[in-house]
Amino acid sequence: MLSKLYAKWMYSWETALTTRDTNRIVRPLEWGFDWLEDFSPLARAANPHLSDTPVADDFARMTAVNRDIVARADEFFGYETPTDFRLERRHPQLYPTNVRPETLEEDAELKRQAETGEIEEAEFLRFTSPIRTRYPENDQVNARWYPAHPDTQKGKPKQAMIVMPQWNADAFSHNALCTLFNSFGISCLRLSKPYHDVRRPAELERSDYAVSSNVGRTTEACRQAVVDIRSCIDWLESQGYEHFGVLGTSLGSCYAFIAAAFDQRLQVCAFNHASTWFGDVVWAGQSTRHIRAAFEQSGLTQDQVREIFSIVSPMSYMERFAATPKRVLVVHATYDLTFPLKYSLDVLTNFDALKIDYISKVLPCGHYTTGETPYKYIDGWYLGSFIYKSFKHLAQAKTAPALESPQTAKAR
User: Are 15 and 337 in contact (CB under 8 A)?
Assistant: First the structure.
């Protein structure tokens, strides 16, 4: 009886949080072949301005594009290391994605404090993304830099995490986790996802272009995010870092998973809310109901939406992810209405089938309520303790051979 009452209360709270924003826009379906034509000949052939081939069936064409790109995913997520890495200092800003009065007041107060010098400037890693879009501001990658104090790094390899918050996160989301990891001697780059905070085009209130009913643009945003993560590791390596991890929440976990599948340098992976198929979350999640509406209006089904988002689905790269040993944490929430529970459990089922070594943690809340008290502290404990233990293990494995005497090493 109590469990049913708790579930009812939690679902009500979760629904209230996912429906409080009034600036979600139902945009018409756009296939977005033009966003993928630089890579896929099939996408290029679908553009009537570039080919005489008639477009008889856009769904069949996009499905074929997905198959083609997944088969050549090494190329798709490949890149050339940026040459313009730089650190810049500026006052942090909120970049809110909702128009609630309390959020706008917080934003205004931060701007006032910056003008009066009441808050300090922060350091940000900037570089030009190897994946270019039509939005110059989006192509300037932004990652707030949290270097660990040298005293906390003594006697061990330099270690760093890349942290990617949820879809539509403001610029302060997950900063507290970076500070926590710093206390462990782990440096952090808090990476702004494509179309988020300072990278968001001025025409948008929300980070709509990262996930939308424009299929090609959504796919290209994922490609850019994965390449940006890998580019951040390149910079960290140039600074002498040796051990790398990635933490992603919600949409960030999707990007983090794919990056880890294609970059063996990512040895520590924390997925804070995860799912197997991108399209299933778009279709079934409360947060993306406005995107589902566009697909439904065009006559698409859930199965079809799953197919056209195969490129950006962790399930497409599950075996590749499993091929390299990693330290993995998966956190899911029992009352999640954005990443419905069955899709999160499907991640664990596939991990078991592929014999991936992982730790599973469960939150007694939902997706949005993860950010509320007391659940955010439980989540922080799960993430923090896992990151601490995982990097400690890597450091011990690195330093153990150096501690052996020549005689011991020869005997072994």
Answer: yes
Kindly state whether residue 49 falls inside one of the protein's structural domains: no
Chain segment 282-330, per-residue pLDDT in tens: 999 999 999 999 999 999 999 999 999 999 999 999 999 999 999 999 9
Q: Looking at residue 315, which CATH number applies to its domain? A: 3.40.50.1820
- The two tokens of residue 149 are 């104090």
Q: What is the pTM of this model?
A: 0.94
The separation between CA 103 and the C-alpha centre of its own chain, rounded to angstroms, equals: 23
Inside any domain, residue 398: yes
DSSP classification of residue 205: S
Q: Are 387 and 243 a contacting pair, CB within 8 Å? A: no
Q: Which residues contact 119 (CB under 8 A, 6 or more apart)?
A: 91, 92, 110, 113
Cβ-Cβ contacts under 8 Å for 81 (sequence gap 6 or more): 130, 231, 234
> Can you tell me the distance from the alpha carbon of 190 to that of 248, in angstroms, rounded to the nearest whole number?
10
Q: Does residue 343 fall inside a structural domain?
A: yes
Domain-located, residue 54: no
Quick: pLDDT tens for 218-253. 999 999 999 999 999 999 999 999 999 999 999 999
